[in-house]
Specification:
By secondary structure, the chain is mainly α. The protein is 78% helix and 0% strand. It has one domain. The chain is globular. 25% of the residues are buried.
């Protein structure tokens, strides 16, 4: 009995189609962020990070200012002292939560948004406090010398304080890694990704400081401040977005 050529052709086409679909599905599922969604995710994550940076900064400053100017003067001296000691944690917590929440909105389709919010906000607070403590210690040591620093000493201390800022990013990366390791394969390098972002920020701000003398003195401070904030927010959005697009998904997700 001879097989119908049309049936054989249809079977071959179905097999090829199934193989192609299976291959495409497997290829797409290899990454935490599917290839078809990468561009949209990249721009969404970067934009939400910038929004979180701006909104978080404005809200945290407004809350701290309102409490300091309106509420604190009505408190007892002992309570005022406690506020001046611990009040910065309030504004820092507000900023970190808003910043992390905006990122969580962009990433919640791929991993737990709530866990990302907690990890990022907690990591950011620890990173900021550790960085501030080391930088304060470095320049406190400089002041304790009770003399004018030489050029070489100023450069060394400047590099040391910048390094403290850069390496503090490991805290953010570590807490985010605790979440990502549940979803992604071998994300160990994420521990250092935020430090890499801080390094880029430091380099760009150094370049910006070199060209600020060419800006009119009337607008110099405003332009430098806006440039500093804009570059920082952009790098903090772009670098993690690229990193997330490169993560490979675990087989069970």
């Amino acid at each position: 009995m001879q097989a119908d050529p049309n049936q054989v052709t249809n079977i071959d086409e179905n097999v090829e189609t199934n193989v192609t679909e299976t291959s495409e599905t497997r290829h797409k599922s290899d990454f935490l962020i599917p290839r078809s969604q990468r561009r949209k995710f990249f721009f969404t994550f970067a934009l939400m990070t910038i929004v979180g940076w701006v909104v978080g900064g404005i809200v945290s400053i407004a809350v701290e200012t309102a409490i300091t100017e309106r509420l604190v003067p009505q408190l007892t001296p002992k309570t005022q002292e406690l506020w001046y000691m611990w009040g910065t944690y309030t504004s820092l917590s507000i900023f970190a939560l808003i910043f992390a929440a905006d990122q969580a909105i962009a990433i919640c389709r791929h991993i737990s948004g709530w866990w990302w919010l907690l990890a990022t906000s907690f990591g950011w607070m620890i990173s900021t406090k550790v960085s501030d403590a080391w930088i304060g210690y470095i320049w406190g040591f400089a002041e304790s010398l009770n003399r004018e620093l030489s050029v070489e000493e100023a450069i060394i201390l400047g590099i040391a304080s910048t390094s403290a800022y850069i390496f503090s990013g490991i805290w953010i990366g570590f807490f985010q890694w605790l979440i990502l390791r549940r979803y992604a394969q071998n994300p160990w390098w994420w521990n250092f990704l935020n430090s890499f972002a801080f390094l880029l920020i430091s380099l760009l701000l150094w370049l910006l400081s070199l060209v600020q003398t060419s800006i009119s003195e009337v607008y110099r401070d405003q332009v430098y401040y806006l440039g500093e904030q804009g570059l920082t927010a952009l790098i903090l959005g772009v670098i993690p977005a690229i990193g997330l697009c490169r993560l490979k998904k675990k087989d069970n997700y």
